[in-house]
Design goal:
Chain B: This is Roadblock/LAMTOR2 domain-containing protein. The complex is a heterodimer of chains A (268) and B (128). Chain A is α+β, with helices and mostly antiparallel strands. Chain A has 11 helices and 4 strands, in the order H-E-E-E-H-H-H-H-E-H-H-H-H-H-H. Chain B has a single domain, classed as Dynein light chain 2a, cytoplasmic (Beta-Lactamase). Chain B contains 4 helices and 5 strands. A 5-stranded antiparallel β-sheet of chain B has the order 2-1-5-4-3, sandwiched between helices. In chain B, strand 1 and strand 2 form a beta hairpin. The chains are: A alpha+beta (268), B alpha+beta (128).
């Protein structure tokens, strides 16, 4: 627990300084990366959160080809996102809604890592820009408020953080789940619960917000539809997204790839 | 229309509009806001409005039954003595949980006109 508090304090101090300096670059660590431009958050990514490309293609909104075209042609100039709008693939509103949803989702898991032993991001790659390009910059203070609110929502829904990292095990019900549950988004989560996948793996498979999926699982547990693990149950292994890795331009910093290699080396 | 800002600017042109925002009903996050918020605070009222929006959208009684005329909740109408609070859900093919929230002065607003305009705005926001 100490590690979380310490890490949180460090990242808070670092972010405060970067905002004051109106810095541009990527603050990164194992839990993911926050991209700043002029001291505002313009992009965030986390290995446990479906990225914009996966959200758009998993839902069928964009073909894999349209997405890769934007990444290949717009990526080198850091404007893959706006290229989708210029080419008429997406409306400006769709781009903004999808990107903001992914940004706040990833920022939550970067600033509030699932694995409490994970260090908060502490390395700042000054000048780094993300190939997706800025869409709608968000003040860091607003992101922090949102992270606090989301923690509170999870806690109020069902105070069992072990659920976030454990396989989702449906409770065999004598009767089918209530109609309201079957038809709601949490119904899709319940249907995808196979007793093996964790909430973020289900989110990855569905191309759905990872935070919303955590919240669904907590609520399903509160309703007795998902088994609540015993307190202190260790996660079986670190959760990984089921989504395929997005293609990135050759000159983009391949932070996650490097981290995976390091993780693999450390595991030897 | 140019994205969230364009949508909200147009929403403020609805007769009687005092404030407009786009809110995520999963968390209560305000994605954009213009004009005044009820109680003078967009963020707090958005979080409360989001709770109502979520309850409605997840209520099987409103959407269930399986009959042909059933389907997802499209809008919510709250009438208060001096104001209307109108919610229009934004339908996207990718994962999202967003609604357009417009707060109107009841003496100046026309409910039918406001709903019609909000439907159009919520559709155009996500039409390429």
């Amino acid at each position: 627990m100490t590690a979380v508090v310490t890490g949180g304090a460090v990242v808070t101090a670092t972010l405060d300084r970067l905002v004051r300096e109106r810095a541009t670059g990527a603050l990164h660590g194992r839990a993911g990366a926050l991209y700043l431009a002029d001291g505002a958050l313009v992009h965030a990514e986390s290995p446990v959160v479906p990225d914009v490309g996966w959200r758009l293609t998993a839902s069928g909104r964009l073909s894999r080809e349209s997405w890769e075209e934007a990444v290949t042609e717009g990526g080198p100039d850091h404007r893959a996102g706006s290229l989708l709008v210029e080419r008429g693939r997406l409306s400006r509103g769709e781009l903004e809604l999808c990107h903001l949803s992914a940004l706040f989702d990833a920022a939550y898991f970067v600033l509030s890592p699932l694995d409490g032993s994970q260090r908060a991001p502490d390395r700042f790659l000054r000048g780094a820009r993300h190939w997706f390009g800025p869409v709608r910059p968000v003040p860091v203070a607003a992101v922090r408020r949102e992270v606090r609110r989301r923690r509170g929502l999870l806690e109020r829904a069902w105070p069992c953080p072990e659920l976030d990292v454990s396989p989702v095990v449906p409770v065999p019900a004598p009767a089918p789940a209530p109609r309201a549950v079957r038809r709601s988004p949490s119904g899709a989560v319940l249907a995808a619960a196979d007793g093996v996948r964790t909430p973020t793996q289900i989110a990855g498979a569905l191309g759905r917000s990872a935070f919303a999926t955590l919240l669904d699982v907590r609520r399903l547990a509160a309703a007795g539809l998902v088994r609540t693990p015993a307190p202190g149950t260790p996660p079986p292994r670190r959760a990984r997204p089921a989504a395929p890795a997005a293609r990135v331009p050759a000159d983009a910093p391949e932070i996650f790839l490097l981290q995976r290699i390091r993780d693999a080396l450390e595991a030897l | 229309m140019t994205g969230i800002d364009g949508c909200l600017t147009e929403a403020m042109a609805i007769p009687g509009a005092r404030g407009a925002s786009l809110v995520d009903w999963t968390s209560g996050l305000t994605l954009g806001a213009v004009g005044d918020g009820p109680d003078g605070d967009h963020e707090a009222s958005a979080a409360e409005a989001a709770e109502l929006a979520r309850l409605a959208v997840e209520n099987g009684g409103f959407t269930g039954g399986g009959a042909r005329h059933d389907g997802p909740v499209e809008e919510l109408i709250v009438t208060a003595r001096g104001s209307y609070h109108l919610f229009r859900y934004v339908a996207t093919s990718f994962d999202s949980s967003v609604f357009l929230y417009v707060w109107l002065d009841r003496t100046e607003a026309n409910l039918a006109v406001a709903l019609f305009r909000m439907k159009d705005l919520a559709t155009r926001l996500v039409s390429a």
